[in-house]
Design brief:
The chain has helices at about 30-40, 120, and strands at about 60-65, 70-75, 80-90, 95-100, 105-110, 125-130, 130-135, 140-150. The protein is mainly β. The chain has a domain at about 60-150: Immunoglobulin-like. It is globular. The termini are far apart.
């Protein structure tokens, strides 16, 4: 047990760590993906069977290129919409793509509170198709998207 004299961290604590040897840069070796998989392991949930067909290659949501990372996906608080938070891992501005499993009617950049951001940041978004949005993030920028569906 670690002693935490005069600290607020009383009690037992468990730690996990990992060593990941690689060649090249941390980015080219995708160390960030290994770290994320270590810290946030995949959790499978089984649901009751439904009628219908589901494509075995279907992805709920995906983002590219590799330096854009999705950190949260949730239902919007006050409307029937999805909120996706993503960030840029690197210092360079990046153009990327967010793809979804169902058609998107409208996409907006929002504050963390889900209120729509001013118009100048809306220029960072562009609908590519009914299933994908093009995004532009500055270096290390965090972006919150609100997606409304048909």
């Amino acid at each position: 047990m670690l002693r935490t004299l005069q600290a607020q961290c009383l009690g037992k604590h468990r730690f996990r760590y990992s060593v990941y040897p690689y060649h090249g840069t941390w980015f080219s070796a995708k160390v960030h993906q290994q770290a994320y998989q270590h810290n946030v392991p995949c959790r499978a949930v089984q649901h009751a069977a439904k009628k219908g067909w589901l494509n075995p290659n279907l992805s709920f949501v995906s983002v590219e290129p590799d330096n854009l990372v999705i950190s949260a996906v949730k239902k919007a608080d006050n409307e029937n919409a999805m909120v996706i938070r993503l960030y840029n891992l690197i210092a360079n501005e990046t153009e990327g793509k967010v793809k979804l499993f169902r058609p998107i009617a409208r996409a907006e950049v929002t504050y963390l509170s889900e209120k729509t951001w001013e118009a100048n940041l809306q220029d960072s978004l562009k609908m590519e198709s009914e299933y994908s949005i093009l995004v532009r993030l500055k270096g290390f920028q965090i972006m919150t998207l609100k997606l409304l569906f048909n």
